[in-house]
Design a protein that fits this description.
Radius of gyration: 16 Å
Strand order of the largest sheet: 1-2-3-4-6
Largest sheet: 5 strands, antiparallel
Distance between the termini: 18 Å
Strand content: 25-35%
Number of helices: 5
Low-confidence stretches: none
Length: 184
């Protein structure tokens, strides 16, 4: 789907679609750019907690749980969900979703997509691209899930602010993470 965003006071048309295997190399590069080790401690523009390899990106593409946004041939951003792994922070996601259902904060029969991750090239920050990606991502998952669940590290202030401005609801926290849900 084509979406118009505003980039440096200029309207730009981006194409947002389900990812395909031809996107894997670009996905790896964008994911790598936002790893804390690469950012040399500068987390002011956000960062990613999950680093993925080609095999995982290919698996997510096969499962149809990732959308990409291109400005011509530049991968401007992506959004994904990892629902098939249960270790590290993804185990926290599954446990928290179970607790939210048990406490009545989410309907017990709801399907919840976990492991949500979004990455946007720095040039496109503030352009409206993340909203367009999120809307297409929700459309992609709408027939399978009723909610999205993610964690945001407490020191990832930019990502936290962006998420809560655009509708994510804080449903809990621990010493390291905020837990957030979004209605699909």
């Amino acid at each position: 789907m084509q979406q118009t965003i505003t980039l440096k006071d200029k309207e730009v048309i981006v194409n947002i679609a389900q990812a395909s295997t031809k996107d894997v190399e670009a996905l790896l590069l964008l994911n790598a750019k936002w790893q804390p080790a690469v950012l040399n401690g500068d987390k002011t523009k956000g960062f990613l907690s999950g680093s993925f390899d080609a095999a995982l990106f290919e698996q997510l593409i096969e499962q149809n749980t990732i959308v990409v946004a291109y400005d011509n041939d530049i991968l401007a951003g992506y959004m994904l969900s990892i629902n098939n792994l249960e270790h590290g922070v993804l185990k926290i996601h599954k446990d928290q979703v179970a607790e939210l259902k048990a406490n009545g904060k989410l309907p017990s029969n709801s399907n919840v997509a976990i492991g949500i991750q979004t990455a946007v090239e720095l040039t496109y920050h503030g352009s409206g691209l993340i909203v367009a990606i999120r809307n297409e991502f929700k459309n992609l998952l709408r027939n399978r899930y009723q909610y999205l669940f993610t964690t945001i590290a407490k020191d990832n202030i930019r990502s936290y602010n962006s998420a809560t401005i655009f509708g994510w609801q804080v449903v809990g926290s621990d010493e390291h993470y905020y837990y957030l849900t979004l209605l699909v």
